[in-house]
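To: structure subgroup
Subject: Chain for Friday's discussion

All,

I'm putting the inputs and outputs inline so they're searchable in the archive.
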Amino acid sequence: MELLEHLSLLVLDQAPDEALTDDLVQRADAMAGAVREQWLEVALAGPPSAARAARSVRDAGNDFVLYLHIHISGRRLYSIRSPYSSARKSHHRLSRALDAFVIAAETALDDDGSKK
């Protein structure tokens, strides 16, 4: 499942503050973009529980990348006190959303990969 490959790589790309580089942020952004392109297909093909889970993954991934971009740029926005802390919180939210998505997808599929 191509979507899960992109999502797992996005989670693995989360790194400690000193390891954040422009390259890592760009890779995370590209992977989040792939998720944005595919989430609707998952939402339309799956049951409502999978659609909700896919939307949560998409939203958490978008937030994660946004905060990474703000952090790496060194800019500060008045409404975001700590972009790095916000990125870490979004990463945790993304991890939970991924877990929920996998459960929803497994529930919707038989062992042979066909829809129940």
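Points worth raising on Friday:
The chain has one domain: 2-108.
The radius of gyration is 15 Å.

D.
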